[in-house]
Amino acid sequence: MGLYDEKYGTAWSALDQDEATERAYALGVAESLGEYNREEFEAVHDEMDTAYTKSMVELAFREGKNEGREAAPAGDADEEAVWDELVEGDVVTIDEDDVPTGGRDGLPEAVDKFGGIEKPNPDEIDATDRPDFLDK
Fold this sequence. Notes:
- Helix content is about 45%, strand content about 0%.
- The chain is built from 5 helices and no strands.
- The protein folds into 2 domains: about 80 residues, no CATH class; about 40 residues, no CATH class.
- It is elongated and about 75 Å long.
- Helix 2 runs antiparallel to helix 3.
- InterPro entries: DUF8057.
């Protein structure tokens, strides 16, 4: 039994897009470590119903495969350590409303929002006026 089978198993009946991309990424990592399971990848891929979700599954698989190769360049690394780092590592989610924007723990000023990229207010008439430099 391989690392993928131990963590995920193959006895699923339905997958949503998030579950499918997670499994595809893990299958890619497993393949980079020498554990080939194309039947499972095809089953996960076929579970998706749109071209977009199928492409997301393919992308996740390729990303897992590439990151697995980078983490274990010549096969010298311990397979379980690579698996633990890439697949079973802590998932970090960031709430868009909680992104720090100031102070020592905040975003740097260079990447913080500035007024030049904000959308104009549609209630202001200036947003639809012709720019001054076009007037003679």
